[in-house]
Specification:
alpha/beta; four-stranded parallel β-sheet; about 15% strand; elongated; RNA-binding
RNA sequence: GGGCUCAUAGCUCAAGUGGCUAGAGCGCUGUCCUGAUAAGGCAGAGGUUCCUGGUUCAAGUCCAGGUGAGCCCA
């Protein structure tokens, strides 16, 4: 006779195999059709807000793992806060203007800037950006990220663009923005100035030359009839035409040394090294001076022959070069600032293409890189070249075209970081008003703020918002070229942009942009010209606190949290902070959360050249987005996080364990109604109560970890609980009771009550991360066993994200009980070890074939005895004999009697019952009762 | 070169203010079960806590210097 039909075996059609790549789109469809995000918004009206402000990714290309990491973290936080009861809207955004779109598009079109009118190009750029917004939107949604996808914010929206104009105007009027002439990183290929964020440093082979500058005078103690030269070292011979000074360190010691028929001046400490590098014999030191005594010496400019002076500078080093530094204020940042101090002219005789102007007679028209060799040749001819070689060093390159950059002084617009104490104020707020996670993120921000130069806001490009500045061009105006800074001018431009988009600046004549009839307040004329440069995209995204947070009704400025990769300390965190402080005297965020970068198995960054780039789409197609979500949340993302086949494999294993536990729970709850079949806590079996008590502390800890954004701690705990507490212990022990006891028995219902709470709690605790699976379980319950949710406060129609976060039920916590069971578990561990030995020696196979004899000290013995028959269930053995002894000793024997064909337990009484000769005493009762009812 | 940061079993993570024989889980190996079954149970083997010094009765933990890695800057 087959008794398996008389058992209560698990029943569910929740599949063991997830088939996530197929299942996930169904869940996404459900969220879409049920308008889950909108419903959440409706229901949370009036709840306390939690605003996580999305940093806009760049609308170009497919999403990479870094963006996956970022968006998933944001989604987990938003979902957690939502389930906790907050109104936590998520409005995603995109950064749409700027060089990367331009470059890609020019590449795609196969033309350059000069071959297409700006307006025509801008139209295509807009389409291009819009295309990638849609593409990335689909990819982000595929990750399971809930948000206001149907109305994201775009930096190329007219309203947004208008805010950019008005923010610029306000900052200009407040005196933060100025026009300067300053060396900036310039890409001769792209013909544009580059922001710091657009520069990549990589190795480049450069010239390395030592050059003699003839000194026209020198300190009197030195007496010689030989020519005296100071020696400089440079890797950019082409900057020599722009040389305006030579800097020495005031504290270094300098020597005049005679080599053959000439005398050279250089820092004493550099002597040995320089002599080796330029292959000079040992010379004779004629005199030695501290640097400060050598200020104001006159030398002959090597290219122009002008008489120029030596100056003092602290940044001079002896690590490289000669301690005498060639200064070209038009071609170097430090040089520029030193130039300000000494009133040196900013000379930069190079045009947009990086070619020398006519003023550089000898080399006019040459590109600066081509000019290096002729310059060196020229120096050599004059006898001023001491040595010439090559050096490989880190050099700035254009992030888009990859070409080497030059520093070139051009008229640019700047945001003055020290205007109105902006830097100081920002740093103070960073220190006092913003929470930084992890904490070191604060010192990083401070360090960067402290040292950052003024922010170059202008770009000589096509795709962006025009700098909204109008000049008076009347040649007779007392201040020709002055900017119209009247508020109504900026307002007029902003409103035009709001009406027609930023193209209006390039389409319309200047008169149509300023207020009708407006005339120059200075000269009364109406001759105007508009600025041609466009605004740095970092400024655009940097004001999102104003254009998005402050303007969107559902949002709020400041945001509760910004969360981005650690590179954004220099990027968005900083540009947002600076603009917010300048505009409104406060930071745009209460908390800043930083995550690391995704690196490969060895911890190396991903790059095309290393060939170690992992494409998220491949993982999604093969394993599902859920695996990516879990992966993110198993790692400590305050550091860089690794990805590899092995790590993904491990994530899949962990996923399977959790999923199977859900399946087991569902299967064993198929005939359980809540609350009808639920057993009151005080009537439950001890072990069931014990697990529920442990579940409460799991809720506590997991919630705390979510609250401190340490999802990996939460998930390691959940996984640990699921594997060890549930799968390896509770579920295993419970099987006998669930399967063999009569369906409606108190014992079985007690177990199910525990299982019910476990299932409901766990799917909620995992929902922010395992969103697809938790929702799938939720949907499965509603479809297959709605009776499980007859609990009135759970609405069947809703997504799991409309239900709330599990609360700790203090009544279920029983620490005494947990302690007691810890003792029992220790005994169980001992029993399992002995069982394993007996299994190895083939005495028993299944543990149910065993009878266990436990000798234990009296207190432990009484503890075990108190469990009665439950003890053998806990140990999953057929018989138990308890004896008193000094120490714990466990022995295992073959169980007595025969095997019950129904429950597989052994009992001496099997065979006693004539009606059921193959069943044990417990089962024949159960089977009998079944027959009575059937 | 400078700023910030990281380094603990094959992998992912633990080890308040220095006090353990450095812990989990996964994976691995062996094994049992076949009523969670492309599941589940049990047992076992895995660590010079990156290296070198130092402080201390005591260092994975503190200090200094290396090495490797990441972000940012020059």
């Amino acid at each position: 006779m087959d008794y398996s039909k008389t058992l209560n075996l698990p029943r569910t059609n929740f599949p063991m195999r997830a088939r996530l790549p197929e299942k996930e789109p169904e869940i996404l469809k459900f969220w879409q059709e049920e308008r889950v995000y909108s419903k959440i918004r409706e229901r949370k009206q009036g709840s306390p807000k939690f605003i996580l402000h999305d940093g806009p990714p760049y609308a170009n290309g497919d999403i990479h793992l870094g963006q996956v990491l970022n968006k998933i973290l944001k989604d987990v936080i938003v979902k957690f806060k939502t389930m906790q009861g907050f109104d936590a809207p998520y409005v995603p955004g995109w950064d749409c203007h700027g060089l990367p779109v331009e470059h890609q598009l020019f590449k795609q079109l196969g033309i350059n800037k000069s071959e297409i009118p700006q307006l025509e190009f801008r139209k295509k750029a807009r389409e291009y950006a819009a295309h990638y917004v849609e593409k990335q939107k689909g990819q982000f949604k595929r990750l399971g990220v809930l948000g206001r996808w149907e109305k994201p914010y775009l930096t190329m929206d007219r309203e947004y663009e208008s805010e950019i104009v008005s923010a610029f105007g306000t900052l200009y009027r407040k005196g933060y923005i100025y026009k300067g002439f300053k060396p900036v990183h310039w890409c001769p290929q792209c013909q544009t100035a580059l922001a710091e964020a657009e520069i990549e440093y990589k190795d480049k082979i450069s010239h390395s030359i030592y050059v003699k500058f003839l000194l026209k005078n020198y300190p009197s103690p030195l007496k010689t009839s030989l020519p005296v030269y100071l020696v400089i070292w440079t890797t950019t011979p082409w900057t020599l035409p722009a040389n305006r000074a030579v800097a020495l360190h005031p504290k270094f010691s300098y020597v005049f040394v005679r080599f053959n028929q000439e005398v050279l001046l250089l820092a004493k400490e550099t002597m040995g090294r320089v002599r080796k590098e330029v292959a000079l014999q040992e010379g004779k030191t004629l005199a030695e001076f501290p640097g400060k005594d050598l200020e104001g010496l006159t030398y002959s400019q090597p290219i122009t022959g002008e008489g120029l002076k030596t100056v003092m500078a602290d940044f001079v080093t002896v690590e490289e070069g000669t301690g005498c530094v060639h200064i070209a204020p038009g071609h170097g940042e430090e040089d520029y600032f030193l130039g300000l101090k000494y009133h040196l002219p900013v000379v930069s005789p190079v045009n947009d293409e990086g070619r020398f102007l006519d003023s550089v007679h000898k080399f006019a028209g040459m590109s600066v890189f081509e000019a290096n060799d002729p310059i060196i040749a020229w120096l050599k001819k004059r006898g001023w070249l001491l040595s010439s070689g090559k050096i490989s060093h880190s050099y700035p390159h254009c992030w888009r075209c990859g070409g080497p950059l030059i520093l070139r002084a051009t008229p640019q617009w700047f945001l003055g970081v020290d205007k109105h104490n902006l830097r100081k104020k920002a740093m103070e707020l960073v220190r006092e008003k913003v929470g930084w996670i992890p904490s070191w993120s604060q010192s990083r921000m401070l360090g960067m703020l402290e040292k950052r130069p003024d922010w170059c806001l202008s770009r000589q490009r096509y795709w962006g918002v025009g700098i909204p500045v109008v000049y008076c061009t009347n040649p007779d105006c007392p201040r020709k070229g002055r900017v119209l800074q009247e508020e109504q001018v900026f307002e007029s431009i902003a409103s035009k942009v709001r009406e027609k988009g930023s193209d209006v600046w390039f389409e319309e004549k200047v008169e149509a942009l300023i207020p009708p009839g407006f005339s120059c307040p200075e000269c009364g004329k109406k001759q105007f010209e508009k600025e041609e440069d466009i605004i740095d995209v970092w400024f655009e995204s940097g004001i999102s606190h104003r254009s998005v947070l402050a303007r969107e009704e559902s949002l709020r400025d400041p945001a509760d949290m910004y969360i981005e990769g650690s590179d954004q300390h220099r990027g968005w965190f900083q540009t947002s902070l600076l603009t917010a402080v300048a505009l409104g005297e406060r930071p745009p965020f209460k908390k800043v959360f930083t995550h690391g970068f995704v690196v490969d198995a060895q911890g190396k960054k991903m790059s095309k050249s290393l060939g170690n780039v992992v494409d998220p789409a491949k993982i999604i197609d093969r394993w599902g987005a859920e695996i990516l979500r879990l992966w993110v949340c198993l790692e400590d993302y305050t550091q860089d996080i690794r990805v590899s086949q092995e790590i993904i494999g491990q994530t899949i294993d962990i996923y399977r364990r959790i999923r199977n536990s859900y399946r087991f729970l569902l299967g064993n709850l198929h005939d359980f109604c809540f609350p009808e079949n639920a057993v009151k806590s005080e009537e439950m079996r001890e072990i069931d109560r014990c697990v529920l008590s442990q579940l409460q502390s799991l809720i506590k800890k997991v919630t705390a970890h979510y609250e401190s954004f340490r999802f990996y701690e939460a998930f390691h705990l959940i996984h640990h609980f699921t594997s060890t507490r549930l799968s390896a212990f509770f579920f295993d022990v419970l099987k006998d009771r669930l399967y063999t006891f009569s369906r409606n028995s108190g014992e079985r219902r007690s177990a199910q009550t525990a299982l019910y709470h476990l299932l409901m709690t766990l799917i909620h605790l995992t929902a922010p991360v395992l969103s697809f699976t938790s929702e799938e379980v939720w949907l499965s319950i509603r479809k297959n066993n709605p009776e499980l949710m007859s609990d009135h406060h759970i609405s069947l129609r809703d997504s799991i994200f409309l239900s709330s976060w599990p609360e700790v039920d203090e009544d279920l916590i029983d620490e005494e009980l947990e302690k007691k069971w810890e003792e029992i578990l220790k005994v169980r561990e001992e029993v399992l070890k002995v069982l394993e030995e007996k299994r190895q020696s083939k005495v028993v196979a299944s543990s149910l074939e065993a009878k266990v004899v436990i000798e234990a000290p009296s207190h432990l013995l009484s503890l075990l005895a108190s469990l009665g028959d439950e003890l053998k269930e806990v140990l999953i053995v057929s018989q138990i004999e308890l004896k008193e002894a000094e120490d714990l000793i466990v022995r295992v024997k073959k169980a007595e009697g025969g095997k019950c064909l129904r429950c597989w337990n052994y009992s001496p009484r099997v065979g006693e019952n004539k009606k059921y000769p193959t069943l044990c005493e417990r089962c024949w009762g159960v089977v009998d009762s079944l027959c009575v009812f059937s």
